[in-house]
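Tutorial handout. Part one gives the primary structure; part two gives the three-dimensional structure as tokens.
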Amino acid sequence: MKILLTGATSFTGLWFARELAGAGHQVVATVRSESYEGVRAERFKALKKVTSMEPHVSFGSKSFLEILESGKFELMCHHAAEMKDYRSLDFDHMAATASNTNNLSRVLDVFQRGGGQGVVLTGSVFEANEGLGDPGAFNPYGLSKTMTYEIFRYFCEQRKLKLGKFVIANPFGPYEEERFTHYLVKTWASAQTPHVKVPEYLRDNAHVSLLSRCYRKFVESLPSQGRILTKLNPSGYVCKQGEFAQKYAKEFSKRAGRDLQVILDRQSDFSEPMRRYNSDSAVEYVGGWEESKAWDECFEYYREKLR
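Part two.
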């Protein structure tokens, strides 16, 4: 299929693009820039090898509409979302929602007129009405994702255009930002022991390679769906963050040939919901996924840092 993908320079975006392209799909990626730094620059370089790039294009813009009109895409995968300072309580959920859904009615009309069969929208376990455990949006970012989906849902249902929602929890693996697992490796590399400040939170961490397999299968299944709305909530390791950190240390210790430890602090920050996780087993959904190979890939990416 010919697929238009937004948000492809993100951590999961790169993996989704590679997985789709590797399965033989023609992926056109719209990106906002041609100049990136750090790990995003690494991802941009890798992305150019597997997609046709359309730089300086934001969702809903004039140039985006022109690409849609001339491209004749079968699917549109909207993975991009405003995320700057996404954990902050000052995150502007209204501006983010407006950006995520910019000119949506026009976008869908042009897409559908060109033969578009369906839209895949990336959701988040941080949203309201998503995931198991404690209810409600985590924060204003989660609220923006909730509102984004409801707007997409309304306009897709109006047009009887298929909409698939792919809900992401906490992905980890090669090319990720400097978040939790990156912090673990960085601390071990400096010959120190990392602290887990919120070990009691029950979360859902998933190998990005597993999520990308789920994403491809979900995308490929959308055109044949008999209903307008479909959703997948792929789940990985559902456990407390302290337990996940210990598992990560154990897997890296085996591959590094040395004992890597973590320190579980006594948690004092309970500002987020205690429990939030997805409901659909990712391993069962895709079948044939090799967990050990995923850990190998993760370790190889960080090997130089640990020497």
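Part three, for discussion. The first helix runs from residue 11 to 22. The domain at 2-171+206-235 is CATH 3.40.50.720 (Rossmann fold).
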